[in-house]
Amino acid sequence: MQFDYSLDFKNINFRCSPELYRVGKGEQGVLLVEPYKSEILPHWRFKTPDIARESSEKIYQMFLDYLEQDDFIGADMARKFLQMGYTRSRRYANHKSGKKYKSNPQKEDSKEAQLEARKDILPNEVDPVKAESAAIFKEKWLQAKTNEKYLQLLAKHKQMYEQG
Description:
Residues 92-121 are annotated as: Disordered. With 164 residues, the chain is mostly helical. It has one domain. The protein contains six helices and no strands. It has helices at 36-40, 49-68, 72-94, 111-119, 128-145, 148-161.
């Protein structure tokens, strides 16, 4: 099932209401789902490889702690932060400004304008420091998303709450 952006995220505690959580695709909801966002976000950094290593190790330990508590949503959110550490540092590795497009396709009015804006990609400016940060996060993200207990809890969550 798709991630449900229509929920009242400001007032939902997903630890108390796990039935409302949808995994979605990729990083969907990473900056919305509480209390996990507030628990994990302060540790999410990728400016240098040393900072990325410390951050990814802390978030991966949080991932393992959530698994130890059978807290699938916490583990999934930690996995999403690890994935976002990879994708954001990769973006900055390729584009110093952090912007991929000359204009934001999401702010365009029509589908045609959005598609046209997606063609206007800024040139790559490879930053080896950010690329190393990305590789550090990617390793932890891959460990998380292939963790056996995580996969078991994912299947259980989908079976209980995401059928239909």
